[in-house]
Specification:
This protein has one domain: VC0802-like (2-Layer Sandwich). By secondary structure, the protein is an alpha+beta fold. Strands 1, 2, 3, 4, 5, 6, 7 and 8 form an eight-stranded mixed beta sheet that branches. α1 crosses α2. It is globular, with a radius of gyration of 15 Å. 22% of the residues are buried. The chain is 16% helix and 39% strand.
């Protein structure tokens, strides 16, 4: 079982053209619960951020809600991401994941948040606001 916190606000999964500089506002003034992650590849730049921080020139397809793993019942957390993604896949809820040094994050479409959190709870996880 995992403890999962629903972060406040809506999130965007954005795509920028390769070589595009990130706006300075992306990394300044983050709130305690804000999350921003950036991935660079030769094909482009992917940014996950609160919708109000999404760069103006990005392509954004849908609005997402962000879930953060806060605690694992198992030492080392081996398989924790699979334990979250599998129930969402069974419920046919799309998911975008990313990890930091400290924990894992999942994004589910805002319009499917109720179904997504219900699927996680049925799988034995605790989801809190």
């Amino acid at each position: 079982m995992l403890d999962i916190a629903l972060l406040p606000g809506e999130y965007a999964v954005c795509r920028l053209a390769a070589g595009t500089p990130l706006p300075e506002a992306m990394s300044s003034g983050l709130g305690d619960t804000d999350v921003v992650t950036v991935s660079w590849t030769s094909d482009g730049i992917s940014v996950i951020c609160p919708t109000d921080r999404a760069p103006a020139q990005t392509v954004v397809e849908t609005v997402w809600r962000c879930l953060r793993v806060t605690a694992s019942a198992e030492p080392g957390g081996v398989g924790s991401l699979a334990a979250l993604v599998d129930p969402l896949a069974e419920a046919r809820v799309s998911v975008v994941t990313f990890s930091t040094f400290d924990t894992d994050y999942l994004l589910v479409p805002a319009v499917r948040l109720t179904e997504g959190t219900a699927a996680l709870q049925r799988a034995g996880h605790r989801v809190t606001d």
